[in-house]
Amino acid sequence: MNTYAHKDLLEAGLTDWRDLAQGLHARFATGDFAAGLRFVDAVGAAAEEAGHHPDVTLTYPQVDIALVSHDVGAITGRDVELAQRISAIAADQNIEARPADLVQVELALDTADIPGIGPFWAALLHGDTDSLQGGDVVGNARVPLLWFQDTDAHETPRQRFHLDVWVPAELAQERIEAALAAGGTMVDEEAAPAFVVLADAEGNRACVCTTER
């Protein structure tokens, strides 16, 4: 099954959608709960017809939708086709997409002993150790994904946790500049545009990440 990289998705013309850390994401500004319910009902019917089901979050002013092919752990043609169908439903219902509002946060923890500490974090965040899958703790969608960044063993105190803030690729530079203007400093931009490391005034670090390579 073919998978889609960032450049492939640009060519697919998915103007309502952005690829972040875990699949395709979109936010639709429904404006009120009743409109959101009608939209979600139509999306659900399209998903049933396609035999492919998105993650949908309905709140009063908006509907957030995420698509990924879990069986291959990537974005595939099934996701692209359903995303296009959902965008058509939104257009038919006069619902506007808000790609500039999209952001996804992951937690990263430096460790030299993933087998030693991974089960603890899996049990703490999700109640059991089954959610530890390789170097990630995954499960409840309300809990940010936690991934372990392999590092050399060390005793010197240092920051172990950092946030990965995933944004649409075209918004990354704007977000970086806003953080720098608000008192941050640039730590490392060698891997840009994939990720840039920033720090606050006390040296706490975070990464602004995109799927662009």
Describe this entry's structure for a reader:
The chain is α+β, with helices and mostly antiparallel strands and 213 residues long. It has two domains: 96 residues, Transcriptional coactivator/pterin dehydratase (Gyrase A, domain 2, 2-Layer Sandwich); 106 residues, 2,3-Dihydroxybiphenyl 1,2-Dioxygenase, domain 1 (Roll). 30% of the residues lie in helices and 27% in strands. The protein is built from five helices and 13 strands. The strands form two sheets. An eight-stranded mixed sheet has the order 7-8-9-6-10-13-12-11. Strands 1, 2, 3, 4 and 5 form a five-stranded antiparallel sheet that branches. A hairpin with a 2-residue loop joins strand 1 and strand 2. Helix 2 runs antiparallel to helix 3. The longest helix has 18 residues. It is globular, with a radius of gyration of 19 Å. The model has no long low-confidence stretch (mean pLDDT 94). Keywords: Lyase. It catalyses: (4aS,6R)-4a-hydroxy-L-erythro-5,6,7,8-tetrahydrobiopterin = (6R)-L-erythro-6,7-dihydrobiopterin + H2O.
Across the major sheet, the strand order is 7-8-9-6-10-13-12-11
CATH architecture of the largest domain: Roll
Helical content (DSSP H or I, runs of 4+): 25-40%
User: How far apart, in Å, are the first and last alpha carbons?
Assistant: 22 Å
Enzyme class: lyase
Pfam family, one: Pterin_4a
GO molecular function: 4-alpha-hydroxytetrahydrobiopterin dehydratase activity
EC number: 4.2.1.96
